[in-house]
Specification:
566 residues; alpha+beta; ten-stranded mixed β-sheet
Length: 566
Amino acid sequence: MPPKTEKEPPNVVDLASSDDEGGARTAAAANKVSTITSLTEMPQTSGAITTFVLPSEEALESRSFWKAGNYAVGPTSKSFMLQDTLEHARVHPKFLHSNATSHKWAFGAIAELMDNAVDEIHHGATFIKIDKVDVLKDNSPALLFQDDGGGMNPELIRKCMSLGYSSKKSNTTIGQYGNGFKTSTMRLGADVIVFSRSTSGSKATQSVGLLSYTFLRRTGQDDVIVPMIDFDISGHWAEPIVYSSQEDWSSNLKTILEWSPFSSKEELLLQFDDIGPHGTKIVIYNLWLNDEGIYELAFDDDDEDIRLRDEALRGATKLHKKTVELQSHISYRIRYSLRAYASMLYLRKFNNFQIILRGKPVEQFNIADELKYLKVVTYKPQLAAGSKEYTVETTIGFIKEAPNLAVAGFNVYHKNRLIRPFWKVTADGSSKGNGVVGVLEADFIEPAHDKQDFERSSLFVRLENRLKQMVMDFWKNHCHFIGYQPLGVHLANMKKQSPAHQHKNSSNLQAEGDDQSMVHIPANGEQDLRDEQPGLDVPNEAMSEDDLGDISIDQLCEENIQLFRR
């Protein structure tokens, strides 16, 4: 059977930055140009790429992500406009790296790819697998993401691998900027290959796309080139879909095999065997190293986890008991354990979807389920006139370890996705508010592009102020449950004590410093003024937010001296 031919879409994706263009550009003279090169390049009759291969030591001088943007750019062919076509805005390969620097944290990049699979739940996705695989070509580790969602047809995979396109702006999906795939994959490794299979009606297709920063650097490209091949699998075999010529299709395949972990067409096709009738597999390879030449992601520390290296613990032999207790808490573990972070990443538990990390399902966790003395506070943000009204319910309480662990803050979600974990809304340096944790979903404010923070809008500022007040109110009404008393209550009790004890309390208050709003009363009856524990700076019930600090230490001491003299 002769190969099927179509005019759309071309086998090149130019990573232009316009959301309105919706992915791959189509040129009027596409059939005159090699489909693997940019439309602004000189037409190539052979279908091959004009390259200038840089010396290996020059092109790959650093495998560290934060230094990978520094490389020499070799000579490239002059670009000039083809007749009857418009020149597009060129995107240099270095932009792929600078764009990926929006992810300061590797786990944030992994979360972006998890979001894409979660968004596929409405297309039937039931799992996402995250695992380490080995690249046979050089025996190096690679990162695998695989889901059984709807998959991508040739048009959709081109939109996925273009820049700034998104069709997911809705009230339910997490992704919205159309930039997450590029930033996240390039943040984790230099290269990514995508396999996707899709069925629409009676037609089934499978596609392979390669986004390789190594290829672009080593060949001295000054424009982003993404080779792709597609197959029609509606029949009993995979039939190549040819858009311009068989020679161009073969050129795409040759480039993919040269720069990917796979050496033959047969190896490529084997990658579809475990995908099923629909789904997507992403393999990120040439993973980034840290400045010491060690892989940024640690796969060997735990066979059921992927970890980040905690540089603060390097060389530590004996840790203080308090430090060990803090490191065992979820607020600390989410920084370095992907399993811990993934367990809190989504607020509501999935009914028919699993996150499978290195062969073991992740158990979802909501810290609100184990808070003590919890309270639900309702907040209605003041939005612009005519906007949809929101009612935000915040669950607030003490962690079960309070007051022994200095953990506090709000876990703020957006559309079910964790954006800011354990966000402290008040100042450090005091025990006030120690152990107070809250959980809320704030869909009325927009997250930043990396989904690790929110845009600093007036709505965000008002939310921050409201959360501060929640902590203040909760602390004033509940701190006595964990052994603290507001200072006003404590001073009343001091008047009933013996003069000797009053003198002791006066000395302790003089040493207390700024921590004026409450006093910790342990079970043995003696004061425990814990300046060394970071907490939330919350006024006591006798003080308003504006009056905080009106009573000085000197005044308090003078009052106690007078009591002692009497």
